[in-house]
Automatic annotation (TrEMBL):
Gene3D superfamilies: Hypothetical protein apc22750. Chain B (3.30.110.70). Transmembrane segments: none annotated. Belongs to the UPF0145 family. This is Uncharacterized protein YbjQ (UPF0145 family). InterPro entries: UPF0145_dom_sf, UPF0145_YbjQ-like. Signal peptide: none annotated.
Length: 101
């Protein structure tokens, strides 16, 4: 969200992010390869991506708290392939201070 109903932004602290790098496990890579050939969703890889996305979000929240933020607006996720090594997952947004209306 770009705002929080019932609150007003009293200060914009600035951008914050949480970053993690997911290195693919051997089993997930094998499963993904088989699913590519046969079709279907690779459950192991999907579970790993979910867990690493949560880790990026936790790091985003920690970064905002460290700057004294009460909220993070306009949260987004981005991922980038790191060649054959893994995947970078970044959660980012704008840290702000807020107060109830």
């Amino acid at each position: 969200m770009n705002d929080i109903p019932g609150y007003e932004v009293t200060e914009v602290i600035g951008d914050v992010f949480g970053l993690t790098v997911m290195v693919r496990s051997g089993l997930s890579s094998i499963e993904a390869g088989i699913k590519t050939f046969l079709g279907g969703e690779p459950q192991g890889l999907a579970r790993e991506l979910h867990d690493f996305r949560l880790q990026a979000r936790e790091r985003l929240i920690a970064a905002a708290k460290a700057k004294g933020a009460g909220a993070i607006l306009a949260v987004r996720y981005e991922s980038n392939d790191l060649r054959d090594t893994g995947t970078e997952i970044c959660a980012y947004g704008t840290a702000v201070k807020i107060r109830p209306l």
